[in-house]
Amino acid sequence: xTISSLALGPASPALGRRCQCGSGGGRTWRPLGASSxxxxxxxxxxxxxxxxxxxxxxxxxxxxxxxxxDAVDRIASLSQVASVLGTQWGDEGKxxxxxxxxxxxxxxxxxxxxxxxxxxxKFALHLVPSGILNxxxxxxxxxxxxxxxPGLFQEIDGLESNGISCKGRILVSDRAHLLFDFHQVVDGxxxxxxxxxxxxxxxxxxxxxxxxxxxxxxxxxxxxxxMDTFAQKLDTLLRDAASRFEGFKYSVDMLNKEVERYKRxxxxxxxxxxxxxxxxxxxxxxxxxxxxxxxxxxxxxxxFGTYPFVTSSNPSAGGICTGLGIAPRCLGDIIGxxxxxxxxxxxxxxxxxxxxxxxxxxxxxxxxxxxxxxxxRCGWLDIVALKYCCQLNGxxxxxxxxxxxxxxxxxxxxxxxxxxxxxxxVSSLPADLRLLEQIQASFECTFCLLFRSF
Length: 454
Ligand code: IMO
Ligand code: MG
What we know:
This protein is of the alpha/beta class. It has helices at residues 3-7, 42-53, 60-76, 94-101, 149-160, 181-194, 206-215, 227-244, 252-269, 276-285, 317-324, 356-364, 383-393, 403-406, 433-437, 446-452; strands spanning 17-18, 28-29, 81-86, 107-109, 114-116, 122-124, 138-141, 146-147, 170-173, 177-178, 273-274, 290-293, 334-338, 341-343, 377-379, 381-382, 397-400, 413-419, 425-426, 440-445.
């Protein structure tokens, strides 16, 4: 897959160009392309290149017109259930794509991102799906999500105070697990324990909450309907944390305060709670169009990512079925979103750009974490990792984002292969962290690849 094979799609009447890098098994990729789908002015950069190279006589506006028509056709032809997943370590721009696509869908599920409304107002969402900005969309928070109710209500309040109505438009799965404030405290304590080998989590309690779920003493949204047993369930969790962490101070007073708080949350959440497995499957039967939005990204997947520097869920294609309760045969198009690469937190990053160029990309692309504000590590597009993500997810399209940011750089590189210290080529993404950490990426300049693809 080369950048050009994506970029030239809109200018070429025949959709789909064969990958030239030899890594994709000769598979044909259908570019999403075109302005209404693009995250930024990035594709314009490409369209200009396409206009120059493919159709020198065509005016830019003619090319743009073709782009517009192509984009509308491509969006309209997306399958009944379509999904948007990140192909790197998150922050690829999924939220913007979902916001654009949501206009053509009846409902959307999961995750949250930084998005801007028509007036340019910024919304940093973590739990409420990005489709909320589109008035017609029903948003579903699936069973695979861990829900921090104070955070959810804060997001809802923020949206409502900006005139975005959430009433009747958000459903929260009764099977989703509740993430309590204490999970966040435990997240911090675990990271502190790891000292220099810390994961660099968001300290939002994600790992500890999924731990509770897997150990099987977690508290679910449906448990809010039984406040008589809620205190006892929460007490088990808090005692567990107190016995494990010396720094965790637990008292009965703390439990009582939390129970009182959750009584109020339970009342407020009541109208949002639904059996979303039933809702999703009924919607599929009724031929409603559903857009699924993955959280984080494939390289942060608990099974397939750069373990242990990963999140605690499966933000790859398998997670669509387990996180929503829909069958694999219902999944249609899966769109992979990629840009140059960024990563927050620790862990291997073979195409990382250190020094001035990395700083330039960070500042130009405003690459600072949505959740924690941490500076994101920046690097070149990693084709080896991308091929791995394509294998795992079976993408029907790739959407290339943030190209405008790259226009600040004099040279754009792609990481095209991995090499071990001894010079031996590594043909697939290694599971072994030690190997992954010492891997060297080999780079090629995109313009070389662009011309080689003709
Ligand atoms: P936002 O909401 C990018 C990364 C963390 C860490 C790993 C595990 O900012 O768009 P976790 O808190 O999940 O236990 O952290 O995953 N990570 C993210 N990276 N964007 C995110 O979401 C992320 N949420 C978690 O940096 O490396
Ligand atoms: Mg992010």
